[in-house]
Amino acid sequence: MTRDQAKPLLNYISNHVNLSDSEEDELIAIINYRKYLKGQYLVQQGDICKHSSFIISGCARTFFVDDKGQEHTIMFAIEDWWTSDIGSLITQSPADYNVQCIEDTEVIQFPYDIQEALYLKIPKLERLFRKMLERAFVASQKRIVRSFSLTAKEQYIHFKKQYPKIEQRIPQYMVASYLGITKEFLSKIKSQLATE
Amino acid sequence: MTRDQAKPLLNYISNHVNLSDSEEDELIAIINYRKYLKGQYLVQQGDICKHSSFIISGCARTFFVDDKGQEHTIMFAIEDWWTSDIGSLITQSPADYNVQCIEDTEVIQFPYDIQEALYLKIPKLERLFRKMLERAFVASQKRIVRSFSLTAKEQYIHFKKQYPKIEQRIPQYMVASYLGITKEFLSKIKSQLATE
Q1: One Pfam family of this protein, by short name (chains A, B) (predicted)?
Q2: Which is it for the CA torsion B172, B177, B182, B188, positive or negative?
Q3: Do the Cβ atoms of A84 and A53 come closer than 8 Å?
């Protein structure tokens, strides 16, 4: 891919670690640009996840479908976020989750098979991913805490704060599924909030 | 601390990355051995977390107390596990969680203020922590999924599998609080399972 296409990723990286020009060139040589259409999958439940994807534009949803056919939304990702099924990626076993594009989505992909070699070559990238994982882990623990301690209404208010630009972009049933409530209950919460 | 005291940690590390003798010596020079008594805290909600702790013996529980005074259990940690409030550690802001010893507990502590310098000196340790974080993040996401898709009974069965050696060591109310149910409901589940 071209340096120009990689610009959003290089900007993102430069907020966390400083790569030299030659390190940037090495990186650009191994990452790939890919455009997915709305409805297409970056990862499908049951497949083996082969990439970490950095989103340049668009929006993707991570969800899984349980034995009863029920969808559960794990997370959303938009511009400047990463997405993948990390469990599948690090064990190279079938993915638990689907990552599906809610909009046409442009990504930069890191192929997993060269990721460990890349870390050895450019340790600053291992630093970047270590730091990203720290934050992702903290956010994930906080979500567990919220599910314990907040009401559905409080969780919805938090969701709006956490994803301020996303709510207009996604169907309401996905927001409900992220909160672990029904679409009807979400409507009720929203009309309650509107009258407060 | 002595090489002998560090043995459990060095064994653990050798399962993931290979340190040279001199790298092990550098590590030993900066980590600390500490014994906590049952009931003492490794981290207290509101304090700034200063260490990552590797447990040599004993058992610690991570929990938080919400505005209503209700305790919520996030995780347990026993021999060969790590514990800390990572959110507090990486931002050096007040901890959201308590980490309290359920038994007398021996730990090896990595001081946070030298952790980044340590990674620069021994990149293999950054690799170790990156890999640990990947697994911790995956486990945390799976817990969110279980809370969505499994009944309390199924979650309890999973808990027994995940923590096979812990259940006998901790009070039942902590297990209930980990599962997000009441002590009474847990008793009911257990007597149901006993008759199956």
Answers
A1: cNMP_binding
A2: negative
A3: yes
In order, the DSSP letters of B120-173 are HH-HHHHHHHHHHHHHHHHHHHHHHHHHHHS-HHHHHHHHHHHSTTTGGGS-HH
Interface test with A, best of B82, B144, B147 (most A CBs within 10 A): B144
Tell me if chain A has a CB within 8 Å of the CB of B10. no
pLDDT tens for chain B, 196 residues long, are: 889 999 999 999 999 999 999 999 999 999 999 999 999 999 999 999 999 999 999 999 999 998 889 899 999 999 999 999 999 999 999 999 999 999 999 999 999 999 989 999 999 999 999 999 999 999 999 988 888 888 999 999 999 998 888 888 999 999 999 998 999 999 999 999 999 8
The dihedral of CA B137, B132, A23, A14: what is its sign?
A: positive
- C-alpha to C-alpha distances, A102 to A58, B144, B145, nearest whole angstrom: 8, 22, 21
Phi and psi of A110, rounded to 5°? -100, 115
Query: Domains of chain A, with CATH numbers?
Result: 3-124 (2.60.120.10)
Contact A70 B96 (CB under 8 A): no
List, in order, residues 6 or more apart from A193 with CB less than 8 Å away: A153, A156, A157
pTM of the model: 0.90
A144 interface with B at CB cutoff 8 Å: yes
Provide the ipTM: 0.89
**Structure tokens of A155?**
């969780």
